[in-house]
Every structure is written in structure tokens, then in C-alpha cells.
């Protein structure tokens, strides 16, 4: 009986932890923003940015990011599952994008209502957990 109870508690803890990851709405937002980046939908990215960011960047400045990246690193192949990392005190949503000759970490930060505060691509080593 005790073993069954411990197994049930362990199952609940794992279920709660994995459910927290999948129900975080910013993970879905990050995936959508990444897909917009891949398909060069700069207007969609711009529309979902926080107002303070919109005052610093235009939609045109967001165009062609993947095209430029593919010119350096080869064709985009895939990306890893999203992780939540604390980067310089900010909750960042991170994935590793794999190109033919390059891996880049993609970081997306959101404000409290789900608007993007930033979307950056950095060397993968900067965000890979050691």
C-alpha cells in the first residue's frame, strides 16, 4: 500500500511539473513568433511586440532575419523544444535552432500580458545548459 501511495505521489508531481510547462501560454506564443520569424512574417512579429519595443524598431527591420542567417549557416533544419531560462533576471523562452552549418539559440522575452519585449538569436553555447 505504501509503495502504491508513493508511486501515486511521484506520478502526480511529474504530471504537475510537465503540465506547468505545457500550459504556460508564453511557450505557445514563443513558438508562434518563431514560426513567423521562419516565414518572414515581420508584420505579425511587430504587431505582437510591446509598445515600448515598437518605438525602437520597425517591422521592416525584422524582415529577412532567417534569409540572412541561412546565407551564413545553411538551410534551417529544426529547433529544439522550448525551455524557460532565467537570463539576466528575465524569464526567457529559449530554443536551439539548427541550420546546416550553425546552431543558434533563439530567446524570446514577454511582458506580463504576453507582448514580446525581445526576440534574439545568439550563439547556441550562450543558452545551452552545461
Per-chain topology:
Elements: H1 2-23, H2 25-38, H3 42-47, H4 51-54, H5 59-62, H6 65-73, E1 76-79, E2 83-87, E3 90-99, E4 103-110, E5 116-123
Antiparallel strand pairs: 1-3, 2-3, 3-4, 4-5
Level of helix content?
40-55%
Beta content comes to 25-35%
> Helix tally?
6
Number of individual domains: 1
In CATH, the topology is named Nuclear Transport Factor 2, Chain: A
Structural class comes to alpha+beta
Low-confidence stretches: 1-20
Largest sheet: 5 strands, antiparallel
Question: What does this protein structure show overall?
Answer:
- Mean pLDDT is 85; it is low at 1-20.
- Helices cover 45% and strands 27% of the residues.
- A hairpin with a 3-residue loop joins strand 3 (90-99) and strand 4 (103-110).
- 15% of the residues are buried.
- The radius of gyration is 18 Å and the shape is globular.
- Strands 1, 2, 3, 4 and 5 form a five-stranded antiparallel sheet that branches.
- By secondary structure, it is of the alpha+beta class.
- The chain has one domain: Roll (Nuclear Transport Factor 2, Chain: A).
Which short descriptors sum up this protein?
130 residues, 5 strands, Nuclear Transport Factor 2, Chain: A, alpha+beta, disordered N terminus, five-stranded antiparallel β-sheet
Gist of the model:
With 130 residues, this protein is α+β, with helices and mostly antiparallel strands. The protein is built from six helices and five strands.
Amino acid at each position: 500500500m505504501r509503495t502504491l501511495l508513493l508511486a501515486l505521489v511521484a506520478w502526480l508531481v511529474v504530471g504537475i511539473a510537465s503540465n506547468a510547462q505545457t500550459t504556460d501560454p508564453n511557450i505557445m506564443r514563443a513558438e508562434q513568433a518563431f514560426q513567423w520569424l521562419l516565414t518572414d512574417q515581420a508584420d505579425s512579429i511587430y504587431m505582437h511586440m510591446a509598445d515600448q519595443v515598437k518605438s525602437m524598431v520597425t517591422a521592416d527591420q525584422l524582415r529577412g532575419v532567417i534569409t540572412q542567417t541561412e546565407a551564413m549557416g545553411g538551410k534551417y533544419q529544426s529547433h529544439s523544444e522550448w525551455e524557460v531560462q532565467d537570463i539576466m533576471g528575465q524569464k526567457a523562452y529559449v530554443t536551439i535552432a539548427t541550420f546546416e552549418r550553425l546552431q543558434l539559440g533563439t530567446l524570446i522575452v514577454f511582458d506580463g500580458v504576453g507582448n514580446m519585449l525581445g526576440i534574439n538569436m545568439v550563439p547556441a553555447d550562450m543558452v545551452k545548459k552545461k
